[in-house]
Amino acid sequence: MKTATLTLAGALVAASAVLAQDADHGRQYYDQYCATCHGADGTGAGPLAEMMTAVVPDLTGLSAKNDGEFPMLDVIHVIDGRTGVRSHGGPMPVYGALFMSESGSGTLYGDVLYSRGKVLSIAYFLEGIQK
To answer: What SS3 state is found at 91?
Structure first.
């Protein structure tokens, strides 16, 4: 029993370290790709927001607009371009395609994993800044 408890405790510590690292990556990716429009704090007040013809949304209220639940799948789909992008382009870049091109893995599978990892990291970061 003691061994099982120690094993579980070790797994939880390892998992929390991975999640913390993912949150750090999410912040880094957000700052690099999103903050210029959405602002460093996610409120939509980035330095380019006033130059946009479309209203830049406040990303800190996504959960509040969704009955207190963070709409993880919807957020992922908007970031990677599966939804929210019109046929001739939308107000937001399609980051899924950009991340795929950055991968450099040499394989489609590796490119997909790289892209989805970045998108998921940003989505986790956004979940953490909800008001």
So the answer is: coil
